[in-house]
Amino acid sequence: MNSWKGYTDTQRIAYFSMEIGLTAEIPTYSGGLGVLAGDTIKSAADLKLPLVAVTLLSRKGYFRQIFDSSGWQQEHAVSWKPENMLELLPGKTLVTVEDRDVKVQAWLYRVKSPTGGEVPVLFLDTDIPGNLNEDRAITDHLYGGDQQYRLKQEIVLGIGGVRLLQVLGFQVRKYHLNEGHASLLTLDLLNHHRRVVENGSSELSSWDIPKIQSQCVFTTHTPVEAGHDRFPYSMVEKIMGEVVPLDLLRNLAGKEEMNMTLLALNLSHFINGVAKKHGEVSQSLFPGFEIHAITNGVHPFTWTSPYMMSLFDKYLPSWANEPELLVRVDNIPDDEIWEAHLGAKAYLFQYIQEVTGRTFDPDILTIGFARRATAYKRAKMIFTDPERLLQIGDGKLQLIFAGKAHPHDDHGKRMIQEIQQQAQYFGDRIRLVYLPNYNMDIASRLIPGVDIWLNNPLRPLEASGTSGMKAALNGVPNFSVLDGWWIEGHIEGVTGWSIGPPATETTVDVNHSDEDVLDLYNKLEKVILPLYYQDRSGWVKVMKNAIGKNAYYFNTHVMMRRYVTEAYLR
Ligand SMILES: *Cc1c(COP(=O)(O)O)cnc(C)c1O
Description:
With 570 residues, the protein is of the alpha/beta class. The protein is built from 21 helices and 19 strands.
């Protein structure tokens, strides 16, 4: 295909996401949401689904994380050259920001699958001569700046995205909003449709809301009210102006403030949460809307280590495009699974040596924990009682942490610092490192190389979680609080282990921190360590079950087939 025009002769699903993580070299993502978007696109390409993705260019990325000598996070700008990775498309469009016309252009990346499928990804960019300097910076920083900056970004993403697809000749059969950041696209669609079918009356009934709903699918990712983007109408009027009349907007997006989630809920015919539990939690947050659940996944080929991959290729050929075949993992001999895992472990330990200078022991049970350093993830839980942990794990345990805190999140930064102080206290009794700059490359080296993947978020705030699925794909069992996807994947002692009681409540008010901590220590001491050190074949059985009972199902191939049958074809 020599030009993007080849993409425009089929009707496509337009997949909008504020962040997309395809590879570590294109740093336009911050964490789970973006990586999920990237995995979604890759599976769509493998399955030859007609998709086009739209996101922001984020010229300065999220940030590169380093630590000062006290373990405090420092943020450095990421420098990358879009022109080395992407192809600038000729079309441009305009959006209005503070009464100014702002030009928007797009860079193309082609996600190509070995199956022959291809998905174009458009990265929107306002860094164009003729735009004011401040407007040229709108697409610089992912999740940077203040609320006004965020609103401008969402105007470019939602409204600019729809218009640019049109300018480039894309035919769109559905819009899929991955989280509420792109909700403004619904307003442009409303307006556009009205211009076509109506003229004159500004009564609400003259807006063809059912028509727009029939075109939009909305996936919510945030299980708490406070997590949803909202903007005061005074700011909306000043920055966005009237894309549709304000009384209509207030009807659709909330009386007091423009709530991006509410806007998307009101203008979509299919709405879903990202795991069964999260569907229920969202349903109680938004009574009056029908909320479905499609559990997240991970892209099998991207997240399988080269060591496991060669085994899967040998025993389960074509697993990568048909991950259901992993159900036959028991055909792989135990010792080959264990050897492959030791390969991934050595590869990780080599990296740790290079980056931190510390030597980890391949014979010691190693626990991994990496995710955004934000309060609800409770990264420090395992250190609640350091003496107890020493009693359990002295000489028998190693810990590897990673994850970035948002630049404004001092609490998250303090957590990271305290974990590093803990490392000094433990010394060589329990080796502990905090790897800097967690990104997709580090994730793909870290997750397969540990023996257990730990997760202990505050219920029910882990909407789905996906790193645990990456672990399962590599035969790394999960040891996790029952929240998000793990409620669906967990069979005690078979696919991994739970921490604390089952998730029955749907609010953060009722939690079980004390129980969680005790259960974590008890299981580690009485179940996990003995199995690892005294019953290797029992351990490998759990590894295989993680692959055969978790990874075969919790992947983006299964997830995309569900989006097609349950959302896109409706
Ligand atoms: C998979 C991934 C995440 C998401 O992990 P969660 O367990 O869902 O929090 C975040 N960051 C990176 C770099 C990842 O690869």
